[in-house]
Design goal:
Purple Acid Phosphatase, chain A, domain 2, 2 domains, alpha/beta, six-stranded mixed β-sheet
């Protein structure tokens, strides 16, 4: 008789009594490939106020060479966060202000038209896309929308939220590492400006039925994960309002929206899971110069870079990991630099005054998003 013993590498036979012949069958080990993962980073509002523009002008003059002749250079403002932004597969900014059309004067609040060189800095920092639907979308009319989309296109950055043609406002699908994604962008208003009926396709107002229709269309086009950027909420309020929460509930309950990213209120707001979908209600101002006096709270200088990873489950469901929030702070004193707060606090070369400001900023952000911020250690 014989005994057949099998392990993962094959089978062997042992005999007992009369000799026997046994065929050895090889069983190849089975391996399951890990699901593909795409890493993301999302940032809050980019607002080019007058002092930032003036600083960018001074920087351009100081650094001008025969090879580099920018009229405005915003790139140094992003240098501290560049490693984090450029280290992910897809980095998405929120460009709140339109670009001034060629030949027209620059302008800031209340009707913005900012230098196109801000898009050079966005690209240099490592951003791949921007959401562009905001309450300032129509500040410079259709020419401002065209200028914005053109400027981003010229530096290789994609966008959602503005359109030069009716087709551009429709859902589009792009592919990263074999996963098909759609990114949609909407705003609550245009600050009272009215687009003519025949050109309302230039951007997209928040309307749940419109958003669900677009998300359904994205699915039909093959999107496996649909991300919605929302310009919404009550300015200066660190809590999501009832409009935000009710819309978030309706969108996430549909099964058509896989992640919601919020902007506009200029302070950090909570992140919650709603119907199993992560909703980041507000990421704050990653770059701005809102006056922190009686007009704006001190936390309007605070923001977060939200990172997450996307996988597609075996059933085809998009799964975003719990976001990790990386606090940032706008350092107006040293040239409107966006500080990576925790990284800066680990540095042993920063001054006591700067360290104190960063600690205060970290405390403010932690009170809103403490469960999503990595434990902080002051040591390198």
């Amino acid at each position: 008789m014989f005994v057949l013993t099998c392990i993962t590498t094959g089978c062997t036979a042992t005999t007992s009594g009369a000799p026997s012949t046994v065929a050895v069958v090889s069983i190849a080990p089975t391996t399951v490939a890990p699901p593909k993962a795409i890493t993301f980073a999302f940032t809050g509002d980019i607002l080019s106020h007058t002092p930032l523009i003036d600083q960018a002008k001074r920087t351009a003059i100081a650094n001008s060479t025969a090879e580099t002749q920018l009229d405005y250079d915003f790139r140094p403002m992003f240098l501290d966060i560049k490693p984090l932004i450029s280290g992910v597969d897809i980095a998405v900014c929120h460009l709140e202000t339109p670009i001034a059309p060629d030949g027209e004067e620059l302008s800031t609040y209340p009707f913005f038209g900012v230098p196109k060189e801000i898009t050079t800095a966005i690209a240099d920092a490592g951003f791949d896309r921007c959401s562009t639907a905001s309450n300032h979308t129509y500040d410079r009319g259709n020419d401002g929308i065209d200028a914005t989309v053109n400027a981003l296109q010229d530096v290789g950055v994609k966008q959602s939220g503005m359109a030069r043609t009716p087709d551009e406002i429709e859902p589009l699908v792009f592919e990263v590492r074999g996963i098909k994604i759609s990114h949609l962008s909407y705003t609550f208003s245009y600050n009272g400006l009215i687009m003519p009926n025949e050109t309302q396709w230039r951007s997209a107002i928040i309307n749940t039925q419109r958003i669900l229709r677009d998300a359904q269309r994205a699915r039909e086009l093959g999107s496996q994960a649909t991300i919605v950027s929302m310009h919404w909420g009550t300015e200066k309020d660190s809590n999501a309002n009832s409009m935000q929460t009710s819309i978030a509930d309706e969108l996430t309950a549909s099964g058509l929206v896989d992640l919601i990213v919020g902007h506009h209120v200029h302070v950090v707001q909570p992140t919650n899971q709603v119907n199993g979908v992560w909703v980041m209600y507000g990421l704050g101002n990653v770059l701005s110069n809102l006056p922190t006096d009686e007009r704006w709270p001190i936390n309007s200088q605070d923001a977060v870079i939200a990172t997450t990873a996307l996988t597609i489950s075996s059933s085809g469901k998009a799964v975003f990991e719990k976001p990790v929030m990386h606090p940032t702070w706008v350092d107006k004193t040293h040239g409107w630099v966006i500080r990576d707060v925790q990284k800066s606090l680990r540095s042993q070369t920063i001054s006591y005054g700067l360290a104190r400001e960063l600690e205060l900023s970290l405390g403010r952000t932690t009170r809103v998003l403490g469960d999503f911020i990595n434990p902080y250690s002051p040591l390198p």
